[in-house]
Amino acid sequence: MINLVIFGPPGAGKGTQSEKLIQKYGFVHISTGDLFRWHTKNDTALGKRVKEIMNSGALVPDEITISMLKEELDKNPNANGFLFDGFPRTVAQAEALDRFMKENNSAIHFVVALDVTEQEVRSRIAKRKLVDNRADDEEDKLNKRIDEYFNKTIHVLPYYKNQNRLTTVNGIGVIDEIFNSICAVIDK
Ligand code: AMP
Question: N or C: which end of the chain has fewer CB within 10 A?
C-alpha cells in the first residue's frame, strides 16, 4: 500500500494529476479543498464555520482541517493507498498526518511537489475562471491564497525533504509528461 501527497500552489495541476493517478493506481483521493466545498455547498455545520474563511482565500484553522481529515480516513479503513491533495498545508497538519498513518501501521511514502512559477499559476487560474467560477479565484482572494501558500504551506517542504520523502517534479509542460514523471516516482 502506497500513500502519496501531491503538493503545489493553487493552480499547479494537483487536481488534474490526481484524477489520472486515481485511475492508474486506485488511490482513495482525499482533497480537503473538495471536502470543504462539499460542506459549504450543502450548508452543513462545518460548511457554515468555514465558508467565510474559504471565501477570503485564507487557510481554515488546523484544528478544523485535521479533524475533518481524520474523519475521512476513518471512513476508508480498507483503502489500498491514499492520495492527499491540498493537505497538509502546515507543518502541524503534516505531523498529524504522520501520526494518523502510524496509528494504522502505515506511512506517507512519497510527497510529489509540482514546481510551477507564480506567473504560470496566475495565468492558469485566469483560464480556469472562464469555465469554473470559483469565488476564491477572484483577484484579491487569489492573492491571499497565493500568499498563504508562500507564507505557510511552503514550510511543509523542508519537513518532508529532511526525511527524504520529497520529490520535486517540473509542473510546467504537457499534462501526460508531468504525469509520467510522477508515475516514475511511484514506480521506482
Ligand atoms: P483548494 O481547493 O485545495 O485550493 O482549497 C480551497 C480552500 O479550502 C483553501 O483556500 C482553504 O481555505 C481551504 N483548505 C483546503 N485545504 C486546506 C488545508 N489543508 N488547510 C487549511 N485550509 C484548507
Answer: C
